[in-house]
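Weekly sync notes, structure subgroup
Attendees: PM, AL, DS (notes)

Item 1: joint prediction request from the bench team. They want all two components modeled as one assembly rather than separately. Inputs as received:
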Amino acid sequence: MPAKEVGTAKVWRCPICTYDNEDSMSACDICGILRNPLVKSNIQINDVAAPFKFNVPSPDDLVSSGLQSLKMKSKDNQRDTTIPVELELSAKDQESTSASVTRQRGNGVNEKDYAPTSGSIPGMPHSNVNTEAMSSKTGKVEKTIERKTASISDFTPETWMIPETVDGELSQLNLAIVGHVDSGKSTLSGRLLHLSGRISQKLMHKYEKEAKQQGKGSFAYAWALDESAEERERGITMTVGVAFFTSKKYHIVLLDSPGHRDFVPNMISGATQADAAILVVDASMGSFEAGIDATGGQTREHAQLIRSFGVDQIIVLVNKMDVVGYSKERFDFVKQKLGTFLRTCGFKESSISWVPASVMENQNLVANSSDSRLSWLVAAFAVTLSLFSQDFFASSVMLCNLPLILLCRYRGPFLMDAIDSLQLPARDYSKPLQIPICDVKSQSQSQVSACGKLETGAIRPGLKVLVMPSKEIATVRSLERDSQPCSIARAGDNVTVNLQGIEGNRVTAGSVICHPDYPVQVASQLEMKILVLEISTPIVIGSQLEFHIHHAKEAAKIVKILSLLDPKTGNVTKKSPRCLLSKQNAMVEVALQGPVCVEEYSSCRALGRVFLRASGRTIGLGVVTQIIKREN
Amino acid sequence: MKIVRRDLTRNGPGSVKMIPEEADDLWIAYNLIVAGDSVMAVTVRKVMREAASGGRDAERVKLKLEINVESVEYDKEGAVLRIRGKNCLENEHVKIGAFHTLEIDVNRAFVLRKDIWDSLALDVIHQASDPNASADLAVVLMQEGLCHILLIGKSITITRARIETSIPRKHGPAVAGYDKALTKFFENILLAFLKHVDFNVVRCAVIASPGFTKDQFHKHLMLEAERRQLRSVIENKSRIILVHTTSGYKHSLREVLDAPNVMNMIKDTKAAQEVRGLKDFFSMLSNDPERACYGPKHVEVAHERMAIQTLLITDELFRSSDVATRKKYVNLVDSIKASGGTVHIFSSMHVSGEQLAQLTGIAAILRFPLPDLDDIEM
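Output from the run, pasted for the record:
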């Protein structure tokens, strides 16, 4: 964040007017610029305001929190206050806000530092008023928290929820592997696990032996992910395989998705947890064309789905290069064709990286390829390089190697490099807990294990949580990450939560674990904005579709087609059209057969994204704009 | 449906005595009987009688009653028709004008007396007495964790069973749990299958699913049949067909009926015709939207211009108690038939009929495009 800190002195330089402010000032004295500008509106600044023990506040706390609670009031429209000092304090409000933000970041600025700030407020009378205001405020805040359906803005994350940026600790990245059937996704996952040391040589030998016995020798690596007898027998992945490994920069959670048309619902459920994706394409003749085929190639469908999950970073791994003899022309052909398609999906050129590789021969995965056939022009990849690696490397490559172009090896990013250069998306630590449940195992009576990725908030053992839609309270007995127990899990982590005090049949895939005071909404009739993909039969009122949202799926019916929207501006072009054709944007109302946990897209993205499927194809992508009928 | 006695004049009054033989026939009767008709049947009524000692005694007496129909209800799952109305026949126990509800179920004879026997009603009677053309398909529509067992009859589709379980994923240590849960799921389906699918009635059984669930279930079925010596399954092994669908939800039934090997079996049945008709409509709507329209207003306008080639209409529209509306639709149907078009009357109990009902219940494929239909309010 652009806070300019001058060494360790207790001054900071304002970026605009270059005035040296005191460390304790959170806004520039001269120009009023905030020191740590408000990031996203998502992170509610007024969350952190109130102290945790309302019963016994220390005098310092009283004053400072009086400031902050007043600040909270002024920002919160719901509560009307008529405290005259509010206006005077408004100038200080921003500073206390950003101060609270700094505190949120865990920079070690504790509350005592606010004393001098508040000291500059004229005299004691204010403090008195503050105290009164605070105590009345305290009562209100308490009541709000006790109220069952409190609004999100009242949520105050506790300190353990916000991660400290400890150096050396790797953050978790959820990576989905998608692509057309038989492009090599499971094999790639197995290879990566093996190369990073997750799978021992002995285990790998065992897989190889067993695979050969069953006549599926080439699937040896895939067997690391495809564990059930059914999958191994048929040589396909049916459900998303989850595996953990570590790269230089991240703890990576691999979500190996099925490529078959019939299992796209499983792929949706798995990939909804993804932060970034690897799209595996088969470079061999015919297979690539089949994958990108408009009428049913999974390369196409997966790319569209991935984009609509909100994933904007994608690595395209062009696999099976050994089959085409590492031909540059083929790679370029694939890159050009797929590139145009990905651009139409909405991926930005800069966030796609192209990696040619061969998983079977272990080329270009964890190190630059040693194969002489890959000695291509460096210049072609310098552009990609400069975007992903450090700048100096790219410039030095270009300078030093230009005369030696033809003799150089392929220096484009290898796969692990490309993975490490992915950016982590912003995590919502400061919102109440929400975990959409991907998978449930019933351990024994009243003990259930649920896996999922935390979308917002944080969890640790001992907490009481609420499971929607069954509205049951359970206690967290323990947490597991990567089969090892862990003490805290925060937004972005993929964990297994062991719950106690709840029956197995009350928790299913598609349920959501949430904070008891901030339940997720449950509804069966929704209004959504959808984009219709390429369809063969038009969508009319009464069309029956399958509705997929996070991990839940339901049968749904279009109740009303409200209006057609202009794709660019979003304005209504036609009210109540008769039917919907391909590539139209529209507002529709759907009724579901059963209730699902859902939130409006504007408040929670992961719980507001919808996929509509019918006749084995994804026909629409949408976001929930309004919940019409809530289940209570 | 057994028609015992027929005594009517076309477009005039008359009566018919019939005995419904299966659930389908009750549905047909439901469509026939409207408010204003009169129905006579043997029924049981609780009658109060004064005993000699002055105490009142309730007795259940079997009597033959004729009532003027006020409302009709059809209970799908229980397969019984309830007709409510006022008594109009002189009877020693029941006064004229007293309300009574007749319960007609399978194998109970009744006489239906109507004022006007229009062409539609006669068509229905004719079809009802037709012994063949009974679809009778049992479908096990499933996906992992969800299963529907449906019986497709001549004019109705009944959901016999719905089984839903949560099946865990296959992560390393939990693979055993997955197998166990799946076996239990299949066991439940097997029990329901044995209970509801009677191979004497049903022509064939279809197992449909996306992915490989159907193969897994089929294997399980065969194994269990061998193990437990289930004769009904073993003998009819050849009548079990596997079909691929895209989901286990009820609307995928369309795809089952579309599948070529199933289609062969049920080519001539109403259900198949309905599915085909609807499919034609949708393909017309996507290829040439101006040659397809739906909604009563649009269809009327199209009819005025003599543009209708094929009319798709659900029988629900005929069941309206308003005589005028019913007459209007009957006239519409008659005139289209007269002008050389075709009319498909969809049973709203079938999947395609349900879908058409969602689409306002009436749709048409036109002979020539009518572009200005879009401007007319629906």
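Discussion: Chain A has a mean pLDDT of 72.
Action: AL to compare against the crosslinking data before next sync.
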